Amino acid sequence: MPADLYQARTDEHCRDVVDRGILVQASFNTMCAIEYLKSNNVQSHIIERVLLHPEQRRKPRH
User: Fold this and answer.
1) Which runs of consecutive H residues, i.e. helices, occur in 1-62?
2) What residue ranges do the domains of the chain occupy?
3) Which domain of life is it from (predicted)?
4) Quick one: pLDDT at residue 10?
5) Cα→Cα distances 53→8, 30, 42, 60, Å
6) Which has the closest alpha carbon to 47: 16, 13, 21, 10?
7) What does each C-alpha distance from 13 to 2, 6, 16, 29, 44 come to in angstroms?
8) Euclidean distance between CA atoms 21 and 31, whole angstroms
9) How many other CB atoms sit within 10 Å of the CB of residue 50?
10) How do residues 1-49 score in pLDDT, each as one tens digit?
11) Quick one: which of 6, 13, 12, 10 has its CA closest to 59?
């Protein structure tokens, strides 16, 4: 597991978009979440990690 998975997020807007994308996936489906994230310019490797590999998501903020 890459070490950068545990670095703090520095882009709050991107963090919020990704968090909403995860909610879209839970509420609707993965394709809707992919489209939402793509429409908000989230990089494809981030989309893949957060939607298809939830065990690799960053730790939730406190």
Assistant:
1) 12-27, 30-39, 44-52
2) 3-54
3) Bacteria
4) 64
5) 18, 12, 16, 15
6) 21
7) 23, 18, 5, 22, 17
8) 10
9) 20
10) 454 554 555 689 999 999 999 999 999 999 999 999 999 999 999 999 9
11) 6
